Amino acid sequence: EAGVVQSPRYKIIEKKQPVAFWCNPISGHNTLYWYLQNLGQGPELLIRYENEEAVDDSQLPKDRFSAERLKGVDSTLKIQPAELGDSAVYLCASSLDTGSELFFGEGSRLTVL
Amino acid sequence: AQSVTQLDSQVPVFEEAPVELRCNYSSSVSVYLFWYVQYPNQGLQLLLKYLSGSTLVKGINGFEAEFNKSQTSFHLRKPSVHISDTAEYFCAVTLYSSASKIIFGSGTRLSIRP
């Protein structure tokens, strides 16, 4: 069974440019999470989806970040415009439902120059 | 609100030595507790979890953790480590009432010396 797939694995952009990350969760997993992981720190939740509904986006900086999960499967996370401080690893995770074990993708490492 | 503190950012040990990675949590209500491992350039993987029942929890790769409610701790242990255990380890907590809101600690980097 395929795990959580993220792309791209690495992205280098200049500040003020847009960037998008894509996540394909494990088949049948209703809950999808986007986490931000800064160097030397633990993951911090950005947004959580139950099917196609964003049920917790309180930590998402909505002035520049946006996310969507069309049809309750794949999800994209967008940053526009990117800032230097956005350099980090963006992790996607999925679970069968709320409270179940989280399965993480390998992450997308963003470097903003 | 709940929080998690991992007291050691780095733990160096020799191969085949025992190891303990410390984790303390803060919460006024009952919690679920987890340990995740992150190998270099990989995503996080669940090692073990405490939901209820026995306070000693066994996980994959020979790891175990003990839930201590009075000390609000959930330390991770392994009696004999291997080079392949080199990784970052994250303790995490979530509330019974909000099982989807998982809070992670800052991580402990375990480095194994031959």
Secondary structure blueprint with pairings:
The complex is a heterodimer of chains A (113) and B (114).
Chain A: E1 5-7, E2 10-13, E3 19-24, E4 31-37, E5 44-50, E6 53-56, E7 65-68, E8 75-79, E9 88-95, E10 103-104, E11 108-112
Parallel strand pairs in A: 2-11
Antiparallel strand pairs in A: 1-3, 3-8, 4-5, 4-9, 5-6, 7-8, 9-10, 9-11
Chain B: E1 3-5, E2 10-14, E3 19-21, E4 24-26, E5 31-38, E6 44-50, E7 56-58, E8 64-68, E9 73-78, E10 87-95, E11 98-104, E12 108-113
Parallel strand pairs in B: 2-12
Antiparallel strand pairs in B: 1-4, 3-9, 5-6, 5-10, 7-8, 8-9, 10-11, 10-12
Q: Give the mean pLDDT of chain A.
A: 92
- Coarse structural class of chain A: mainly beta
Quaternary organisation of the protein chains: heterodimer
Tally of extended strands of chain A? 11
Which pair of chains forms the biggest interface, and how many residues does each contribute? Answer: A-B, 23 and 22 residues
By secondary-structure content and strand pairing, the structural class of chain B works out as: mainly beta
How far apart lie the N and C ends of chain A? 37 Å
Order of helices and strands of chain B, N to C?
EEEEEEEEEEEE
General shape of chain B: globular
Give the overall shape of chain A: globular
Helix content of chain B: under 10%
Number of helices of chain A: 0
Q: How much β-strand is present in the residues of chain B? A: over 45%
- Residue runs with pLDDT of under 50 for 5 or more positions of chain A: none
Largest sheet of chain A: 7 strands, mixed
